[in-house]
Amino acid sequence: MPRLLIPLALAGICAALLAVTVRFGSFVAGGSDSSCYVLQAERWAAGRLLTPDPLALQAPWPDAERAFAPAGHFPAPPVRGAIAPICPSGLPMLMAPFRAAGGRAAMFLFFPLCGIALVVATYWLGARLNPVVGLASALVVASNPIVLYQVVQPMSDVPAAAFWTLAVAAAVGRGPRAALVAGACAAVAILIRPNLLPLGVVVGVYLLLQPDRAWRERLARGAVYAGCCAVGCVTVALVQWRFYGSPLASGYGAVGDIFAVAHVAPNASRYGSWLLQTQTPLVLLALAAPFVLPRGFALLGVALAAATFGVYLPYLVFEDWPYVRFLLPAMPVLTVLTLGTLATMVQRISMRQMARVLGAVSVVLAAHGLWAAQSHQAFALRRLESIYPRTGGEVERRLPRNALVVTSRYSGSVRYYAGRETLVWDALDPASLDRAVAFGRSQGLEPFFMLDSAEEEAFRMRFAGSDLARLDWPPRIEIAPQVRIYEPAARERYQRGESIATEYVR
Amino acid sequence: MLLTSGPRQWRFLAIAVTAVFALAACGKDEAPASAAGAVTVTPQRTSVDAGAPIEIQYGFTRLASAPAFPADAWVFVHVVDDAGTLLWTDDHQPPTPPSTWGSAEVTYRRTMFVPRGTRPGHVRVEAGVFVRPDGVRIPIAAANPSTSGFDIMPASNDLFVVFGDGWHAAERVEQQQANEWRWSKGDARLSFRRPSRDAVLSIEIDQPVTQVSRPTVEVRIGSDLLASLYVNPLARQIYRIPLPVARLGTAPTVELNVHVQPTFVPARTAGLGSQDTRELGVRVFNVHVGFP
Q1: What DSSP string describes A106-173?
Q2: Is A377 in the B-facing interface, judged by CB distances under 8 Å?
Q3: CA geometry: angle at A105 spanning A104 and A107, to 5°?
Q4: Could you read off the pLDDT of A300-322 as tens digits, one per residue?
Q5: Reported pTM
Q6: How large is the ipTM?
Q7: Would you say A328 and A150 are in contact if contact means Cβ atoms under 8 Å apart?
Q8: Taking CB atoms and an 8 Å cutoff, what residues of chain A touch B253?
Q9: Cβ contact, residue pair A460, B174, below 8 Å
Q10: CA B226/CA B229 separation, integer angstroms
């Protein structure tokens, strides 16, 4: 293969992935996860991490602080009235410099860059076996449906996978700084997803057990690697201590609440079938890698994949396909093992056919990946999530600056796009809706209810004792058409016979 | 003489000029084909609130010299604003097939809802005939374009209808404001301020799933049955239910119970291949309470 062809092809794959993120990217503060990352990145960039909200401190109903925490947040245990993120802080910390340097749009540049880093890292890892394996693996990973699904969102999956793959690719290298680079990448990966620390242990054990190196060298490399990882771990501990009051606490709750032995069997079944769907059954070839590929390399890959599975098997059980994203850090390694094994087997039959077979297989896998991504709506996310910036923008334009927006689904987007105070209704004491409205008014705020049509029934049920919860007067604004913004003060006027106009935003 | 020109250069110039004219000609509209008939569109009101229904009378004639309309012809209805921007459509199958139309005028009335998000202003209704499979229009002349319009007033919320319990989230087809709906469950509630006199409930319903038997919709106030609606499969239809004030009770708010039988769950319905686990009754596109 001509020398320039591989770099050019790799650049082409990266350019294509970049084009996908630009064309289909849904870089919004929307649901719980994306709101958490984006709002936290803003706070890290501004240097305001734990600022008490006076409203949360003064509100007169039980557990008031929880209602003032927007999507992806909860009351910070160490500081009364402040909010802490549910998500880990590594990703927002990495986004923050982009935010500080280039504004909000620049903050989202981090994600396409991570997508490119993931592709390059996969190539780098595969090229340890053979450059053709590297290129084929890069193509397959770039078109992996869950990669395409996640790279278009402000989520931590692709960044975590990119840094873990970089760490592994560096660890299997022979250069003098391999351990240092591996450790630095692992530290960042741990910062992004602290629960994947066992992957770091796997890489560390690999560095200690490399049979072709002297013990002294192994220990030195292991120590350098461990030192870097320790920096990541200590940073995580400090951040968690600050946000959650304990270096071992996380925003996801107590370990006993989210991990259980009973989850293992259902998760094994789900992740197994999702993995086969996304990677095709060809991925099973990776299990043969220890018998075909260099033993240490293959065992490292298999162990890394097993560790990733192991971390998530006892975790909460989810029903939806996109949760296969949890396995994303293992997918580049599995792809390299699969294609590396295939290449070696073909090579044994015909040396000359290897590149052709690998090229054909990777193109077929890439086509399957694109089809699966399309059928799983990876390229529709931008449209589906556009409701968040749209409604946030309408709130910004149409509601007064002193609006207190009582909402749930849009609490993150209203904070981010409109900068208005929010009150999360499904975290509000069921007996306190009227009290919350009165309290808002007493603080000089104008309360509004902002509800998705899917939420209205639950809203009525939660606050069944309140007349306001009947939502029996015309909304002030109806957006697109599933979002309505009600002005509680208008109900009384409507009851008196006044006409209340609705603005329809389509 | 600064430029010399030989026959070769003139030939190039001639070709270039011809090409420019040919390109310019490509941008022009084709000459209109001769009309095969005429249509009159007569709104039954001169103004209507956004969100309310309006009845339109359509009259079609086919020239005796024109060939019969195809059996699969439909009527298109486009509502456009003064700038000619398409606001919404009401394409439909007319009560008598266009293939049977002759030179005698065929008239019928049909009600459509003005989407509630429509901006106030004057609109014009354009109608004609098209062949449904390929969308090709049959040339028809508009007989009364200057009187085929009506004014849209801001939506009146005086008798604002509240979707209470028993409704799924609002859905829509992107960019089509006349295609917004909510699926009902088996039992759903609508409520509105008690009108001071007899009123009419207009409700536009369909049930687009053929694998399910034809649903019946009962509308009640308490135990008082106001109407039983037999929903035609696949057809989006507007039903008008009289609301005599004497039957509306004395409470300030009127609560209507909408009972749909049978309901279905798409994920459990053979032949749909759906993962939707919601209990679905009928789709309600528009609902309006007003005075007759």
Answers
A1: HHTTHHHHHHHHHHHHHHHHHHTT-HHHHHHHHHHHHT-HHHHHHHTSS-SHHHHHHHHHHHHHHHT-
A2: no
A3: 65
A4: 999 999 999 999 999 999 988 99
A5: 0.84
A6: 0.73
A7: yes
A8: 472
A9: no
A10: 10
What b/e string do you get for B53-74 counting C-beta neighbours within 10 Å, with b at 16 or more?
A: bbebebbbbbeeebeebbeebb
Q: Per the structure block, which two tokens stand in for B78?
A: 């486009």
Which among A467, A465, A460 is positioned nearest to A425, based on CA atoms?
A: A460
List, edge to edge, every strand of the sheet that includes B162-163: B162-163, B187-193, B253-261, B216-221, B224-230
Three-class SS string for A444-474? CCEEEEEEECCCHHHHHHHCCCCCHHHCCCC
SS3 assignment, position B107? strand
Express each pLDDT in A368-378 by its tens digit.
Answer: 999 999 999 99
Residue A382 phi, psi (nearest 5):
-60, -45
Quick check: A482 and B164 CB within 8 A? no
Least confident stretch, A23-27, A179-183, B110-114, B156-160: B156-160
Please list every residue in chain A whose beta carbon sits closer than 8 Å to the beta carbon of residue B117.
478, 481, 504-506
Output the 3-class SS for A41-98. HHHHHHCCCCCCCHHHHHCCCCCHHHHCCCCCEEECCCCCCCEEECCCCHHHHHHHHH
Burial A94-112 (b: 16+ CB within 10 A, else e): bbbebbbeeebeebbbbbb
- pLDDT tens-place string over residues A402-461: 999 999 999 999 999 999 999 999 999 999 999 999 999 999 999 999 999 889 989 999
Tokens 């849904």 — which residue?
A26
- The tens digit of pLDDT for each residue in B157-192 reads 889 999 998 999 888 777 666 678 999 999 999 999
- In the structure, what pLDDT confidence band is assigned to residue B11 with cuts at 50, 70 and 90? very low
Instruction: Name the strands in the sheet holding B237-243, side by side, starting at the edge strand that comes first in the sequence.
Output: B167-172, B180-184, B283-290, B199-206, B237-243
**Identity of the residue in B154, B172, B253 whose CB atom sits nearest the CB atom of A501:** B154
Residues A378, A275: Cα–Cα separation, whole Å: 17
Q: Does A471 touch chain B (CB under 8 A)?
A: yes
- Residue in the block written with tokens 């919709």: B217
Tens of pLDDT, residue by residue over A203-222, are 999 999 987 889 999 999 99
Largest Cα–Cα distance in chain B?
A: 102
Q: Are strands B149-153 and B141-142 parallel, antiparallel or unpaired?
A: unpaired
- pLDDT grade, residue A2 (50/70/90)? low
Q: What is the residue whose two structure tokens read 């990119």?
A: A162
pLDDT at B157: 86
The band of A1, judged by pLDDT with boundaries at 50, 70 and 90, is low
Cβ neighbours of B275 (radius 10 Å): 7
pLDDT value of position B21:
36
Rounded-to-integer distance, Cα A160 and Cα A232, Å: 13
Sorted by sequence, the CB contacts under 8 Å of residue A325 that are 6+ apart come out as A146, A149, A150, A155, A157
CA dist., res. A464 & res. A98, Å (int) = 46
Q: Which residues in chain A are closer than 8 Å to B254, comparing Cβ atoms?
A: none
Strands A403-407 and A446-452: parallel
The torsion angle over the Cα atoms of residues B49, B50, B53 and B58, rounded to 10 degrees, is 90
Tokens 């109900």 belong to which residue?
A491
User: How far apart, in Å, do the first and last CA atoms of chain A sit?
Assistant: 55
In chain B, % of residues over pLDDT 70 = 87
The reported pLDDT for the residue numbered B18 is 40
Q: How far is A460 from chain B (nearest CA, A)?
A: 8
Inform me whether the C-beta atom of residue A499 falls under 8 Å from chain B C-beta atoms: yes
